Amino acid sequence: MKTFRIGGVHPAENKLSAAEPIIKAELPKVAVYPMGQHIGAPAKPIVQKGDKVKVGTMIAEAGGFVSAPIFSGVSGTVLKVDTVIDASGYAKPAVYITVEGDEWEEGIDRSEKLVTLKEKPELTPEVIVDKIKAAGIVGMGGACFPTHVKLCPPPGNTPQWVIINAVECEPYLTADHRLMLEKADQVLVGVDLLMKAGKVSKGFIGIEENKPDAIKLLSEKCAANYPNIEVVPLKTKYPQGGEKQLIDAVVRRQVPAPPALPVSVGAIVQNVGTAYAVYEAVMKNKPLFERVVTVTGKSLKYPRNFLARMGTPMSQLIDACGGLPEDTGKVIGGGPMMGKALVNIEVPICKGSSGVLIMNEKEARRGEEKTCIRCAKCVGACPMGLEPYLLATASAKQMWDKCLAEGIPSCIECGSCQFTCPSNRPLLDYIRVGKTTVIGIIHARKIAEGTKKNI
Amino acid sequence: MEVILIAVIVLGAIAIILVCSIFGVGKKFAVKEDPRIGQVQEVLPGANCGGCGFPGCGGMAVACVKAADAGSLEGLNCPVGGADCMKKVADILGMEVAVAAPKAAFVRCNGTCENRPKVNVYDGVKSCRVANSTSMGETACAYGCLGCGDCEAACQFDAIKVNPATGIPEVDLQKCTACGACAKACPRSIIEIRTVSGEKKDAFVVECMNKDKGAAAMKVCANACIACKKCENACGSDAVHVVDNKAYINPDACVLCGLCYEACPRGTIASVSVKGIERKPKTKPAAKPAAKPVASGAAAKPAAVAKPTASAKEWKPIEIKWNAPLMPSQQILLAGPKDISNPVAPAKEAQFEPKRTDAPLPPSQMILLGLK
Amino acid sequence: MNKLIVSLSPHVHSGDSIAKNMYWVIIALVPALLCSFISFGVGAIITTAISVAACVFFEWAINKFCLKNPVNTVCDGSAILTGILLAFNMPSNIQPWIIIIGAFFAIAVVKMTFGGLGCNLFNPALAGRAFLLISFPVQMTTWPLPGQGFGAYLDAETGATPLAIMKQAFKDGDMSVLNQLPSFQDMLLGNTGGCLGEVCGLALLLGLVILLVKKVITWHIPVSILLTVVVFSGLLNLANPVYANPLAELLSGGLLLGAIFMATDYVTSPMSAKGQLVYGVAIGALTVIIRTYGAYPEGMSFAILIMNAFVPLINAKFKPTRFGEVPAKK
After folding, report:
1. CB distance C325–A385 less than 8 Å?
2. Are B43 and B92 in contact (CB under 8 A)?
3. Count of domains in chain C?
4. Domain boundaries, given as residue ranges, for chain A
5. Does a structural domain hold residue C203?
6. ipTM of the assembly?
7. Does A258 touch chain C (CB under 8 A)?
8. Which of A28, C223, C274, C307 has a beta carbon 3.0–4.6 Å from C318's, enabling a disulfide?
9. pLDDT interval class at C250 (50, 70, 90)
């Protein structure tokens, strides 16, 4: 079975909600839309207090090339343009909408009929990319990189494959799994569209072998209708769902250190949720305003998968699962390895919210930190071939040149090192600080050089 | 006996040969260095703190010699050694030295455990830099002190320590050398190196960094600045300004009259003096100001004694030492127009003389100078 | 409702801990411990017990009185492990006061002065053994013969070990001396003279399997050491049969104990797989050289101590392969 070649760990899978079908979540009373739901410039609000919006109305336009517009998932009146505390823990600008009814924009095709690419020969790659850009589609795996930017690689890079990331290696999360089982046809049309938009002739769908039902279903459908798409079962290992690790496993190519992009080795990687959103945007004229969210946790009464409109506060979804348990210690937006611990449960669902994980007090506390015993387990676990013990110490002592020499910008912040450390050392905490500082220093040096050249 | 003699002679001979060769090598490969650099480095404190802006005292010595050759020691100052040290350096190099105004570090946040309720529990590395990237911190203020002690770790003079009872760092002004290490370490730029007045390091500081609107700021911290502008209106020296929903006292323009401290209804402005840090308790916003005119103060004494106003009890006038180096604004105040052109010289002989400009003085200065 | 805990990812942990790793190594040593009790009787039990007690006591005392640590590190099992390994490096008829001196050197000087667990440069048990070997050569090199009954202790009969025989053969240039070597079966089952823990090859190999299965160590160091010794001594043996054959080298002396338990010590071994292979090859080569051409019959402990000093250099030069450096294969 294929897998990535360096490092990796095996956290307990805990896929508690794998058998739960997707339920449509109730509409919230007030929907909140933060402006920074993607990588790149935040969106700029184009509505103000008192405006009426429908489901699918654009409420914020893209703030630049690497940016995406935001669409309302509810119909009602704009309450205010204020700030909200989002997953980052800080208050960020957001649009508040009071929900009234459920009126959709005309033009959105709400029928369930499957529309394939064969029926729409007028869709050229450029048209598809424009529709994706107009619909505000970003990477739904959690990174939220604007999809249209990924489909327009810089000159000199020729993509050869589209690789769909249906791995879902994070424990607890089952959103992508359920989406594949329930909307397989639509997902495959979405993959087809992405392949056309990226001008490639071969597509892969990488799925971990702990989802045998999805592998079987998609393989059958691909064999019947899509000979150019191949389903690749992958060994269950974290972080198989990392972009670079996925490319290494599926096509055996390793993306060089930053600033090299995955497209430089010929691969465009998209999440399976993104593929579904692309289908809806291009074929059904539906912009991105709802997504599948897994709400789960060992002490939660009913772990479930929801189809939630963006802007729904997480507290509402948690209530629909039986309410927040008494012994809750942490509420995590995302999975336990890379997710963000939330400051409160009123944080709204955004484009990258793949899951809400409730952890009880005991699970949530970190272990006692001890001295490094130089066991090298972190070195064995790092999927990027770095030395986390060295990077963490150099970062703690603020030795930025040493950090750069040891390759800190290559770190993908997967958390495998800290997961496996027997001394419970906060390796990733220090490495993150070092990574942001070093990248900032490199950026500042480039600007200084550029200014010098101009003078 | 012979054996010992032979051993001693042989070892002695080896020793002499080695000493001669080391001496010869030392002479041949000696690095030529300006002897003044070594002399200057001798008188520098040797703390290698970087407060001067150069890499260690060695770097400072090189810079001083270079500057002396260039013509002036302007801009070079060792905050640890202070004026005495710079005078010695100047003497060695045969230059004159300008005395820089004394400075100290101030923590511009008073969000103690009492003032700022905690809304989360932070579990992670005890570092302000890391906590800052995690979330707003354990409280709901995105601008306030995180209390993890990066400043305490950065200080080489043991001058700043986080008080475990309040969660806020406290600066020991006697030990602080204003090297700036704590200010650099703070990820929220809460610590500022400010000019202080005199050896006792008197100052007024606004202890809040919150840039949110007043109502929102009050919700997260009892000590927050609500940008009511009462301090800005009370100030007669144009030193206090409310920018970005928070007040800021410019230390170079402040004359230490204390009116902003008096006027602040939230007690956000702190008074720093030899007695330590004093903060006014909050006055209720609805309370009537005790606006008894000063002239009738004597007549109303029995009533005043029966119910002293908070301000009269708390605030004691700050003694302005006339033989300490004066702030430029104070010199303008005391000296005549002809002295404005030379504000840097320490006015040792400046006596309290009623020499003033023709423009009318604001009431605050009149009271201060005992003219009213 | 309680306040929510906020921290940075990852929010789960594998559950691994220092104590878990140390105790699995101790469990892997149990077969060898039992074999030593059977071979050497009550002397083995007393030696091991005194060694462990002395190591634990010194670490506890230093933590409590010198370092004034709020949490005593003696709970993580590394002192017990050092005690057992130190005992395994001594003959069973050694006087108790020598054991205590050795324990003091190993814990206080080699481990705690450098900063405690994780900071020592040399393997404490091996450094303790080397210290005792040089300070008390006679007591450390008179080994009792095995199988003298349970009650044998200080008065056990002593005799030559396989390594001493091999050294004698080389010195004399006489191959026939090698006929005195015990059979492979004897060496595998612990029926020879030697230090406590090094005689029973089978028990040590069983320990290796336990460590590999439980993922406490990786295969790189033991395999590279053993392979190098086999190859190197095999070449020597082919050239001139006065050198002992590779299998005898493999099963005699502290080679198996050193390769499986001493060289794989976390703190003093290299951090990357490449580095570990280089480390293992160098130890193997040095062991054979010291055993053959050096003054001491046993070279393993010195070889490991010498390579411990080189580990920082190995760490700096042999970095793990970074992602993206592997040439593309398609």
Report:
1. yes
2. yes
3. 2
4. 117-284, 377-454
5. no
6. 0.90
7. no
8. C274
9. confident
Q: How many CA atoms lie within 13 A of C101 on its CB side?
A: 15
As given in the structure block, the two tokens for residue B337 are: 């127009």
Structural domain boundaries, residue C53: 18-140
Same domain, C136 and C35: yes
Residue of A424, B109, B241 whose CA lies nearest to C19: A424
Best to test chain C binding among A371, A386, A430 (most C CBs inside 10 Å)? A371
Q: Where are the domains of chain B?
A: 35-93, 103-225+266-284+306-314, 328-368
Q: How confident is the model at residue A50 (pLDDT cuts 50, 70, 90)?
A: very high
The tokens describing A358, both together, are 């409730």
DSSP character string of C168-189: HHHHHT-GGGGGGSPPHHHHHH
Please name the residue of chain A whose CA is at the shortest distance from the CA of residue C267: A374
Q: Nearest CB to A330: which of C5, C115, C270?
A: C5
Task: State whether B130 and C8 contact (CB < 8 Å).
Answer: yes
Share of chain C above pLDDT 90, in %: 58
* Contact yes or no for A56/A72 (Cβ under 8 A): yes
Task: Specify whether domain A117-284 bears CATH 3.10.450.50.
Answer: no
Is the pLDDT confidence value at A160 over 60?
yes
Q: Is A336 on the interface with C (CB under 8 A)?
A: yes
Q: Is the domain defined by B35-93 classed in CATH 2.50.20? A: no
Helix (H, G, I), strand (E, B) or coil at A403: helix
Could you tell me if residue C295 is inside a domain?
Answer: yes
Tell me whether A373 touches chain B (CB under 8 Å).
no
Q: What residues contact residue C217 under an 8 Å CB cut-off, 6+ apart? A: C211, C264
pLDDT class of C268 with cuts at 50, 70, 90: very high
Sort out which chain C residues have CB atoms less than 8 A from B138's CB and list them.
6
Residue C117 lies in a domain: yes
Neighbors of chain B by Cβ distance (3+ pairs < 8 Å): A, C
pTM for the model stands at 0.84
User: B126 CB near a chain C CB, below 8 Å?
Assistant: no
B121, B126, B135: best mutation site toward chain A, by most A Cβ within 10 Å? Answer: B135
- Asked if the C-beta of A366 comes within 8 angstroms of chain B's C-beta atoms, the answer is yes
Q: Quick check: A419 contacting C, CB < 8 Å?
A: yes
CA distance B347 to B325: 6
- One domain for residues C68 and C179: no
CATH of domain B103-225+266-284+306-314: 3.30.70.20
Q: Both C171 and C301 in a single domain?
A: yes
Q: Is the pLDDT of residue C20 over 80?
A: yes
Q: Is the dihedral of CA A349, A352, A353, A357 positive or negative?
A: negative
Supply the pLDDT for residue B338. Answer: 42
B212's tokens: 């949110």
Could B119 and A343 be called an inter-chain contact, meaning their C-beta atoms sit closer than 8 Å?
A: yes
Selected for mutation to probe chain B from A346, A433, A439 (highest B CB count within 10 Å) is A433
CA distance A332 to A327: 15
Chain C CB within 8 Å of residue A415 CB: yes
Q: CB distance A89–B136 less than 8 Å?
A: yes
Q: How far is CA B272 from the centre of its chain?
A: 10
Nearest chain B residue to A343 by CA distance is B120
Q: Which residues of A touch B119 (CB under 8 A)?
A: 343-344
The CA distance from B42 to B50, in Å, is 16
Look at residue C57 and tell me if it is in a domain. yes
Distances (CA, A) of A151 to A133, A243, B59, C143: 10, 15, 53, 75
- C-alpha torsion sign, points B94, B98, B99, B104: negative
Length of chain C: 330
- What is the residue type of A2? K
> Under an 8 A CB cutoff, do C7 and B118 touch?
no
First to last CA, chain A: 56
Per-residue pLDDT reduced to its tens digit, B68-109: 888 777 777 787 777 788 888 888 888 877 666 788 899 999
